[in-house]
Backbone:
């Protein structure tokens, strides 16, 4: 029998709220709750285990971004896990419909008729994400670490100041300097990639 | 748009909903009237979205690890159905992309910190590998799951720019016939990205022993560049000349460009 986290969210509203406030336990719950069935579905829809993992990661990331940006709002009577499953299915359909895949072999029946435009638009955000990733990597260690702690790991300025043995006001100014440098790299990368 | 610290802090507060109602209304008035400011706020919003996505990616990686450690999938049995085209695992894409980042770091760092002629040659010719080629380089087939996981962990650290960690991980990876050359190649690249060309040289030298012609050619090229960057022009020259006269070598024209600068 599988070992799974206990159902810690008594309602879907609770789960949605936990996702909105970036509760990592909610991510773990969603992963354990949704991935096995999605894997099963992908294996029966022209995919491999790696395909399932890839599509699920992309789908879950973009779904969570939609929750955080308010694009996806809680709907009473609609299960969050069902919405996520459908979203990940569309991600896989999008992959199947891509020209690269199309040229290699025939498409499974019916997929060409599925409208994936909305998900395609969401997935285009990954270009921005990758440009930011690249730009962050171009910063010197000191700036990269500071911005990573503050914006990626979401550590407070006060705690960062303690870690670095600096005044909070100094860390705040440093954050500004580093963010401007990050922006310069990002603009350069975005221009090169036509974003 | 170059921001003052005050402007930056206001945009930060606006994007995180920390402005008072009055300040928010005032800022939105400014936004309506100032196209340049609107563009700047959009850019800052994109950057924060990207940074937030990186945070979610890390959290999902932890969720995946926890899931793999504690859960067994429900009776998942592969069905006898044609696989259209397996996508490359997202971690491979991340890894490959991260190597591009690594090389990019090297490019900019060196470009900004030096103006020596050999460094100019280095900077002008240091181009990232295409991601699909890097993925093809990853050993497949007989690599044990444990070794593969260790590589993927190292590659994940690449993505995060933790080159010291990557070097430590790769150095302590046990020798494995399937991956030894790939390991040496990546270790060399890691040192190069970490601004340690002297340490990159032995690893890239060893990587040239690979039976894979493509990997060997890459190792040769980056080794020559490591010599250039390390100020060992005499050692770089014969390698670059050999590459520059080999029509089949994918780095022939780049080697010729470096030679024009330093020879």
Residues:
């Amino acid at each position: 029998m599988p070992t799974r986290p206990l159902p810690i969210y008594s309602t879907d509203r609770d789960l949605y709220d936990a996702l909105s406030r970036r509760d990592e336990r909610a991510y773990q719950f969603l992963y354990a709750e949704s991935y096995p069935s999605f894997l099963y579905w992908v294996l029966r829809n022209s995919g491999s285990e790696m395909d399932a993992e890839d599509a699920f990661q992309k789908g879950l990331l973009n779904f969570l971004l939609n929750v955080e940006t308010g694009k996806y709002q809680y709907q009473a009577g609609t299960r969050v896990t069902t919405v996520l499953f459908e979203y990940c299915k569309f991600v896989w359909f999008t992959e199947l419909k891509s020209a690269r895949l199309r040229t290699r072999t025939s498409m499974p029946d019916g997929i060409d008729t599925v409208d994936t435009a909305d998900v395609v638009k969401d997935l285009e955000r990954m270009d921005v994400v990758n440009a930011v990733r690249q730009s962050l990597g171009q910063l010197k260690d000191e700036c990269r670490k500071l911005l990573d702690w503050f914006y990626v790991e979401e550590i407070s300025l006060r705690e960062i100041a303690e870690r670095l043995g600096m005044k909070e006001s100094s860390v705040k100014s440093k954050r500004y300097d580093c963010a401007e440098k990050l922006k310069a790299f990002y603009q350069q990368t975005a221009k090169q990639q036509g974003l | 748009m170059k921001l003052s610290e005050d402007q930056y802090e206001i945009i930060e507060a606006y994007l995180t909903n920390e402005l008072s109602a009055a300040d928010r209304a005032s800022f939105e008035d400014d936004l309506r009237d100032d196209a340049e400011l609107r563009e700047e706020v959009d850019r800052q919003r994109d950057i924060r979205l990207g940074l937030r996505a990186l945070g979610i990616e890390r959290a999902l990686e932890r969720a995946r690890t926890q899931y793999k450690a504690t859960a067994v999938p429900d009776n998942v049995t592969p069905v006898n159905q044609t696989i259209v085209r397996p996508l490359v695992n997202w971690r491979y894409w991340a890894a490959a992309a991260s190597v591009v980042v690594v090389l990019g770091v090297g490019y900019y760092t060196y470009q900004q910190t030096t103006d020596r002629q050999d460094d100019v040659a280095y900077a002008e010719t240091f181009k990232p590998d295409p991601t699909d080629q890097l993925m093809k380089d990853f050993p497949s087939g007989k690599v044990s799951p444990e070794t593969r996981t260790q590589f993927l962990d190292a590659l994940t650290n690449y993505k995060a720019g933790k080159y010291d960690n990557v070097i430590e991980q790769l150095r302590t990876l046990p020798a494995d016939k399937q991956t030894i050359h790939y390991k040496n190649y990546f270790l060399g690249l890691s040192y190069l990205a970490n601004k340690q060309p002297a340490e990159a040289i032995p690893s890239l030298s060893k990587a040239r022993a690979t039976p894979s012609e493509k990997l060997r050619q890459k190792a040769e090229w980056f080794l020559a560049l490591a010599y250039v960057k390390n100020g060992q022009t005499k050692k770089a020259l014969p390698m670059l000349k050999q590459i520059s006269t080999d029509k089949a070598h994918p780095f022939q024209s780049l080697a010729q460009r470096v030679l024009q600068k330093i020879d």
Notes: The two ends of chain B are 42 Å apart (CA to CA). Residues 73-90, 104-115 of chain B have pLDDT under 50 and may be disordered. Chain B touches chain A through 58 residues (CB under 8 Å). Residues 177 and 199 of chain B are 22 Å apart (CA to CA).
